[in-house]
Amino acid sequence: MESQLGLIDQSFSNRYSNYVLEALDELPDNFTITDPSISGHPIVFASRGFLKMSGYSKDEVIGKNGRIFQGPDTSRRSIMEIREAIREERTIQINLLNHRKDGTPFWMLFHMSPVFSKDDGRVIHFVAVQVPISKKRRRSGCGYRRNGVSLSEDGSQVQDFVFGSCRKEVCSDSLLELGRVLSLEQVLEHDIRESEYEEPCEASDVEKRKSTTAMDNIFSLLTHYSELTGRLVCRKRCSIPDVGLLSSSLIISLGRIKQSFVLTNPHLPDMPIVYASDAFLKLTGYARDEVLGRNCRFLSGVSTDTSTLCLIRESIKTEQPCTVRILNYRKDKSSFWNLLHISPVRDASGKIAYFVGVQIEEGCNGKTQERRGLSPEMRLLSVVGSVKIAVRSSSMSAGSSKS
């Protein structure tokens, strides 16, 4: 968790000048900012308005994925639409039922937009503005019922019992007692099926304008503070993305793999690293921006065996996997023995898209892993398999979205 907090700090410090967080915190709107390049696609900023609306503290939100606000009653279709927008790196505006910390559901207008690097077209962040949909629109479909109790969109209880086929002998005193016992907390403990909902709330034109204005204000600040560093961001993709850049969806999928590995692109000059896992950064001591775009040879040093390097080059040339034991160096110049496995990674069409290099530091947690029945070789192959599935799935999705 400590290393992830460092990555979250770098999420802003590597792109914007100082005080950008303070400037964002002064905005009155409800919004979050996430970073798809960090494992788990976590929230890296949450506005004061959002924290007040959701009931969470800053420490409870930062570093978490937005799914913590979802519940069994959140529309699966809506979630899939949001994931599709992330995969396609585009803006989306959708009505969504989310939950506060105390469990109360509420309807909101969810407006999300990607933040692009002006230099290379890479997605830096996703900004998500959340505008609560007015309670006054309840008659147009807001609210839902559960166990005969009407609940408004903010979770407040309405004393409206539907007795159905209850026997007429039930006295009024019993009904009053039922009203006291059937508290809001008890109602929310039940699973709420989506089929039991009335039509979802529709955001008004005023609420849509509010979300657009909030998004304009946020991007105005991000643009200003990126200009001060010379690493500009923009709301729309200002340049054609480099062919070496990975899609946000692939980065998110790769981020779920916790072991140390890098992905290199053999179709670019000098076969640069285009993805590095958090575990790789922790192992080597480098920051992500110090790794991306470089050839893996920067890990070699004066005592690295040149014959081992020749084996690696030969396996890449022949497009064959290989496993070697090589002496590598961290950023602080300390050395470590690296059990390295390199393998080609093919896309859905069968063409080699990348090479993956998986690293295991010898003598580091090796015995613990072996006691669990995982030999170093099995661990290496497991990572390779996970990477291949992620790349293949991503290329299949990209192909289907273009057709």
Automatic annotation (TrEMBL):
Q: Where is the PAC domain positioned along the sequence?
A: 90-145
| Gene Ontology BP, a term | response to blue light
Residue ranges of every copy of the PAS domain listed in the record? 16-89, 273-295
InterPro entries, alphabetized: PAC, PAS, PAS-assoc_C, PAS-like_dom_sf
CDD domains, alphabetically?
Answer: PAS
Which Gene3D superfamilies does this chain map to?
PAS domain (3.30.450.20)
- Is Chaperone found in the keyword set? no
GO terms of molecular function = photoreceptor activity
Q: Per UniProt, what is one Pfam family of this protein?
A: PAS_9
Organism of origin is Cercis canadensis
Keywords in alphabetical order:
Chromophore, Flavoprotein, FMN, Photoreceptor protein, Receptor, Sensory transduction
> SUPFAM superfamilies, from UniProt?
PYP-like sensor domain (PAS domain)
Q: Which GO terms describe its cellular component?
A: nucleus
| Protein name, UniProt field | Putative LOV domain-containing protein
